[in-house]
Amino acid sequence: MKQFVLKAILLSTLGTSAMPAFAVRWFEVELIAFSQKAGTDIREDFSIETDPIPQEKRLDLLTNGFKNVGHQACLAGDSKYDPRSVMDQFTMQQSSWYCDDDVNYVEKYEKLPVIPFSEPLEHMQSMYLLAPEQLRFESIRKKLERQGKNPILHTGWRFPDQSKKRAPNVVVYGGMKFEQPVSYKYIENEPSDSFVSLLSTAPKQAIKTQGEDLWELDGTIKIHIRHYLYVTSNFDYRYLTEEGELESARMSQFTRVYSGDIHYLDHPKMGIIFQIRKYKH
Q1: Edge-to-edge strands of the sheet including 128-129?
Q2: Count of domains observed in the chain
Q3: Is residue 44 part of a domain?
Q4: Which residues span the domain enclosing 228?
Q5: For the whole model, what pTM was predicted?
Q6: Would you say residue 102 lies in a domain?
Q7: Which InterPro entries match (predicted)?
């Protein structure tokens, strides 16, 4: 009897260690980010400078989704996504063009698509973007539009059960593109061996620099699990003041949520509606 019990324990241990990777629980999250209507009763001061959003452990699922939208538009013949140079477009107006998968179509956007595109996937191997037909919040997005709110991004992704330490900060961005102000940096001119240059300080040369483009919405969402689902979000919402100056409002929240419930993150300038759902369990 004792040998039977030991054998049963051994078989149970071996069976547990041999469980496939997909035995880890998987979830999917869907969200809609939108800008709030400008209100005259907002008294918050958003001009206070904030620390940059943390850059560690970032996972960008959206960029390829935005590129896919541009690639599809190029294949459909949309002239906005014509990859040819301006000269080629002028001299070869009637000729067709080749839509390369490697073209960075995001650079061509003045405003990003609300819904990034991905082929529908069903695996549980790595995190991936939801396809448009896998989203369920279309009626909510249309209701927001009827209320005069402006949807910036409608997307989602699938992810495994991960601890706070292992879970990545998923990059979330969208909306209008704002160019960073032009700045200048000064460098020393190359030294000269002439006697005059040794007696005087060589003048510095100003070089014009341009930073990366800024998007209306830019931030990260991190979802980890410890008995419950926890969502850590950090967003910058950028907008132009009446004077034409670019300002940014920060929204940072840490929230415990339940799968299946629809949650709302509120801010005077923007809002996010999201839902985390169980996937195949």
Answers
A1: 128-129, 150-160, 26-35, 270-279, 262-266
A2: 1
A3: no
A4: 24-38+52-188+206-279
A5: 0.79
A6: yes
A7: CsiV
Judge whether 188 and 204 are in contact, CB under 8 Å. Answer: yes
pLDDT tens per residue across span 71-95: 999 888 887 777 766 676 667 665 5
Residue 256: strand pairing partners? 230
What is the DSSP-derived secondary structure letter of residue 167?
A: -
Residues 59-97 as b/e (b if ≥16 CB within 10 A, e otherwise) read bebbeebbbbbbbebbeeeeeebbeeeeeeeeeeeeeee
Residue 97 falls inside a structural domain: yes
Indicate the residue type of 136: R
Residue 270 gets the label, from left (phi > 0), alpha (psi -120 to 50) or beta, of beta
Cβ(31)–Cβ(156) under 8 Å? yes
Tokens of 59: 């996972």
* Coil, strand or helix at 148: coil
Q: Is residue 8 a part of any domain in this protein? A: no
The b-or-e profile of 219-253 (16+ CB within 10 A means b, else e) is bbbbbbbeeebbbbbbbbbbbeeeeeeeebbbbee
